[in-house]
Amino acid sequence: MKKYAVIVAGGTGKRMGTETPKQFLLLKGKPVLYYTIQTFLRAYKDVKVILVLPLEFIDMGAEIIDAYFDKERIQIIAGGETRFHSVKNGLSLIEEEGIVFVHDGVRCLVSEDLIHRCFDAAKTEGSAVPAISCMDSVRMITVDGNRLLDRSAIRLVQTPQTFHSKILLPAFTIDYKERFTDEANVVEAFGLPINLIEGEETNIKITRPLDLYLAEKIMEAKP
Fold first, then answer.
1. Which domains are assigned to the chain?
2. What is the DSSP secondary structure assignment for residue 176, as one 8-state letter?
3. pLDDT by residue (tens digit) across 31-75?
């Protein structure tokens, strides 16, 4: 079955406080984006990577690909105004039926094992969205103040959010809504259930300077 990895790195990383988008910052001497792409290419020899980048940084992305990877396995396309539009742009390059991973470019510590588990689950269930348990107390802001939620019923959603193309591509034909912060929201709005699988605590998203430090320490701790 065909495999596509839509790696979304269309953000500018304002929370990181740097002029360079976070996906291009160096982590142990290589760009964050390098590790993300490398893991997908290693996970499956036949996966096709579709890299979604800000228009003004496409040349920088191309330089990374030229330096480290086989260009035949990777396509680049410009992102859109929101994540929804960026993913939709990436999906436009999918030509054949298969399994589609949609992954945050800055979740650079994703493991091959998680990618394999997402593929296997999506192949049988139609979707696979990794999520982990919430360890902290959670409160919801209400009109009257706030209230405690049952954290045992809360899951923190990660990527790669993985779907059969017969599900994901039609879902992205619906009109954009502000609540579409990830692919699971879009598919759910399309009227289909979401299958959660166990994620990984180390599959962190590089958003703030502290995350780069944590990612380096996690990498150093791996055997």
1. 2-221 (3.90.550.10)
2. P
3. 999 999 999 999 999 999 999 999 999 999 999 999 999 999 999
